[in-house]
Design brief:
Blueprint: E1 3-6, E2 11-18, E3 26-32, E4 35-41, E5 49-53, E6 68-72, E7 75-79, E8 86-88, E9 104-105, E10 107-110, E11 113-119, E12 124-127
Antiparallel strand pairs: 1-12, 2-11, 3-4, 4-5, 5-9, 6-7, 7-8, 10-11
Length: 128
């Protein structure tokens, strides 16, 4: 009889920067085990922190942290600095193309540290 042992996917809340690294109304690029992530600080909103993939899905370039933040129809957004597509910072959805989205990450403030929840890779192994 063959038994399969599957490790459950886990996440970790990685410290990616500090409050001092944040600039109001803009983003900072951070590196995580899941790749580059853009963390945005919008102090006039609740929640005030957002994290999305730093990679622009239209160009493959890591530029979203340098995008312009704003509000479109009550949605917090970032406009890609390259071709100006808008991405909802809560859902990752592109407002100009409903078939395109960027990955979003839960983010929180822990004292002076900004933490982003990073999914662990799913590893499967078989035990004979």
């Amino acid at each position: 009889m063959k038994l399969e042992n599957v490790m459950k996917a886990r996440t970790s809340w990685d410290v990616v920067c500090t409050v001092d690294d944040l600039v109001p109304e803009s983003g900072v690029a951070v590196w995580t085990e899941d790749g580059p992530v853009a963390v945005f600080y919008l102090p006039h909103r609740l929640p005030a922190l957002f994290a999305v993939s730093h990679t622009d899905p239209f160009t493959g370039k890591n530029v979203l942290a340098r995008g312009i933040t704003g509000d479109l129809k009550g949605q917090p957004v970032v406009a890609s600095p390259l071709y100006k597509q808008h991405f909802n910072l809560q859902t990752g959805q592109c407002l100009e193309d409903e078939e395109v989205a960027v990955k979003t990450y839960p983010v929180l403030l822990d004292g002076n540290n900004v933490r982003v929840e990073i999914p662990a890779t799913n590893k499967e192994s078989a035990v004979a």
